[in-house]
């Protein structure tokens, strides 16, 4: 509405001026610090015998808030005369929080009692020292006569309200520095440091931890200059929620009005303690200048219901959730056989598909000693959006690797995600006889081709998962094998798909599995929780230092000895705090005094040490945990459990919001699967709805 006002920076106008104070109660407008355009005029009708009046052009005046941090109602008192339509904006730290027109018709053409008016800016977050600015332009015979500002404590705040975080106030994790600039909303922005300590540019990363809950439209203010193409990713609790390139060519080469830009992420739902991160790199002479985050109340998007898929009697079965944790099973007609099944939006149409992957045996081509070749066959089963699947695209990929007859040929497609940061879903596979990790890339339509082959010390079985362990957009691999090979090993992606071994952990004497890639310690990077068998059996964690290296200490629950059982686990946020909890219901060892039951552990970090601390124990719940999600859509994560020694029927454990669980009975009848990793493998996905973040 007021585009002619938005092109100037009041904050920069006030930089060298002493700041008036604005406290609770009334502050007379004539006591504010005038930046430009206003003059003090005496008149018998204002509250204290004077007001501010615009002389010509834009006028602005400000004061610093000297109250405590909190939510307030701010009221502007003014004279709304009938001989013009003035305009006014209310700014906090240079960011516009409200604007309004003086277009009343009930007064007259003079600054008289009949023309008195008030405008309320409700639910406004203010902190000590915040700069409050009134900025506007008179019109016709109405010269923006401004009387006072009233500040009152908001006694009934709604769950969501607008607020602004200046980028320079965020926690700088790496790669950013604060640079002063009068064109920025708070006179400064964050800028990518060109060179790190090793001579190369460090990744720029800044974080904000929410002190309130709500659903917001989040706007990132930045300077998109024309002399480079920077890139930024947005993470919430370690999960990427947006990414974009700064590729405008319409602005100039400087951080000014012409290069100001905004990126909006709609309907972002957060709770207190959630951690938001901005991660990126500058390019050319565009050093990722980031100005502010603005949060405006939004409407929570309808939440997709978490469904399930699993193997039963050799067929892929989907179990569709009605939103109240009632599941309807449906066969897909996809027979597993000796193939592997992966899920993801492989054709890029917004819903979840299945990919069937199998392989031929390895052969040694003539004239190529030491090499072996084999073919990988993929078939895409496309989702129609309602959870019905039809075979569509097929591809044949020929792979080559060193020949080693010590191990039997054992190719396995392991996990699917966007490995190469091109917007489509790829997958990772392993093959033991050639000691190989393969990355296969998707063309966006479900056709696959080789991206890379990397050497790794692998057994004939084992698992591999994709995740980011070093903070760049290219996904890395964690292999979960055994103590005689790589153990739990991190392999970093160099951006071309080439994987390099970084670090490993081997706490047990046998095998590792049931892995989850998750930020256990809340430091903004992914860790790995996993189960171990044999001596040292238990639930363990590889705690990442942010570069793919493990820290010196790591949490574990390993109270069972070689006569006991450890079972499976689920790691996630199960209570009202922002931390991660670990659930275990399968551990039992009478000789060590470990009774069966559901244990809830808090993941507690003190300094560099992370530990599993027992939060609660329920001896009435026992079995193997197979999945977790908010199945009843009540805002907290529930869990699914199967019996250890009986038919694999799934029982729903409903969460009360504080990690206290109650059995809601069997929701999936007994099923038979060949896919195990310390428990039957059950996958959570959105099957009959568009893929969304929840």
From TrEMBL:
Keyword Signal: yes
Pfam assignment, any one: FG-GAP_3
Keyword flag Lyase: no
InterPro entries hit by this protein: FG-GAP, Integrin_alpha_N
Entry keyword set: Signal
Protein name stated in the entry: FG-GAP repeat protein
């Amino acid at each position: 509405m007021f585009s002619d006002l938005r092109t100037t920076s009041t904050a920069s106008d006030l930089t060298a001026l002493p700041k008036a104070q604005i406290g609770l109660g009334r502050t007379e407008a004539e006591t504010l610090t005038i930046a430009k355009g206003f003059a003090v005029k005496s008149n018998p009708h204002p509250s204290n015998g004077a007001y501010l009046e615009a002389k010509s052009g834009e006028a602005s005046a400000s004061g610093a808030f000297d109250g405590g941090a909190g939510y307030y109602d701010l009221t502007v008192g003014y004279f709304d005369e009938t001989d013009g339509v003035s305009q006014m904006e209310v700014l906090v730290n240079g960011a516009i929080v409200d604007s309004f027109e003086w277009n009343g018709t009930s007064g007259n053409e003079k600054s008289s009692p009949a023309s008195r008016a008030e405008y309320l800016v409700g639910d406004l977050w203010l902190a000590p020292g915040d700069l409050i600015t009134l900025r506007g332009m008179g019109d016709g015979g109405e010269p923006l006569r401004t009387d006072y500002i009233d500040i009152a404590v908001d006694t009934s705040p709604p769950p969501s309200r607008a607020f602004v975080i200046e980028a320079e106030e965020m926690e700088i994790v790496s790669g950013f520095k604060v640079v002063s600039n009068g064109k920025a909303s708070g006179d400064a922005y964050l800028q990518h440091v060109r060179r790190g300590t090793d001579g190369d540019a460090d990744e720029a990363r800044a974080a904000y931890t929410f002190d309130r809950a709500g659903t917001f439209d989040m706007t990132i203010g930045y300077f998109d200059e024309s002399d480079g193409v920077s890139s930024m990713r947005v993470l919430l609790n370690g999960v990427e929620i947006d990414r974009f390139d700064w590729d405008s060519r319409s602005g100039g080469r400087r951080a000014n009005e012409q290069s100001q830009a905004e990126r909006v992420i709609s309907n972002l739902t957060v709770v207190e303690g959630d951690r938001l991160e901005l991660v990126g790199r500058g390019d050319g002479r565009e050093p990722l200048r980031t100005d502010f985050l603005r949060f405006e109340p939004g409407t929570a998007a309808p939440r997709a219901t978490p469904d399930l898929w699993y193997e039963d009697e050799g067929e892929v079965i989907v179990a569709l959730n009605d939103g109240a944790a009632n599941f309807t099973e449906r066969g897909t007609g996809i027979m597993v056989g000796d193939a592997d099944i992966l899920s993801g939006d492989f054709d890029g149409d917004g819903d979840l598909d299945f990919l069937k992957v199998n392989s031929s045996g390895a052969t040694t081509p003539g004239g190529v000693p030491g090499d072996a070749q084999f073919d990988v066959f993929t078939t895409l089963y496309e989702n129609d959006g309602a959870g019905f699947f039809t075979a569509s695209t097929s591809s044949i990929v020929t792979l080559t690797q060193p020949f080693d007859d010590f191990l039997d040929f054992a190719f396995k497609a392991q996990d699917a995600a966007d490995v190469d940061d091109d917007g489509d879903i790829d997958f990772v596979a392993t093959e033991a006889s050639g000691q190989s990790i393969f990355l296969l890339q998707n063309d966006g339509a479900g056709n696959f081709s080789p991206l890379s082959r990397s050497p790794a010390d692998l057994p004939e079985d084992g698992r591999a998962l994709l995740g980011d362990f070093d903070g760049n957009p290219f996904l890395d691999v964690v292999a979960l094998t055994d103590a005689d090979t790589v153990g739990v090993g991190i392999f970093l992606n160099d951006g071309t798909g080439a994987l390099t071994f970084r670090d490993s952990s081997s706490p047990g004497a046998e095998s590792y599995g049931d892995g989850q890639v998750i930020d256990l310690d809340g430091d903004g990077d992914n860790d790995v929780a996993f189960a171990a068998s044999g001596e040292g059996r238990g639930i363990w964690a590889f705690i990442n230092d942010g570069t793919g290296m493990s820290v010196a200490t790591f949490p574990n629950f390993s109270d069972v000895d070689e006569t006991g059982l450890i079972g499976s686990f689920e790691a996630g946020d199960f209570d009202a705090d922002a931390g991660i909890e670990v659930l275990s219901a399968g551990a039992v060892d009478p000789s060590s005094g470990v009774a069966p039951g559901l244990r809830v552990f808090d993941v507690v970090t003190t300094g560099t040490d992370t530990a599993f601390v027992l939060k609660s124990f329920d001896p009435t719940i026992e079995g193997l945990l197979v999945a977790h999600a908010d199945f009843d859509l009540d805002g907290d994560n529930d869990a699914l459990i199967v019996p250890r020694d009986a038919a694999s029927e799934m029982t729903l454990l409903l969460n009360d919001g504080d990690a206290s669980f109650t059995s809601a009975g069997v929701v999936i009848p007994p099923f038979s699967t060949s896919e195990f990793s310390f428990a039957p493998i059950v996958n959570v996905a959105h099957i009959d709805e568009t893929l969304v973040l929840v």
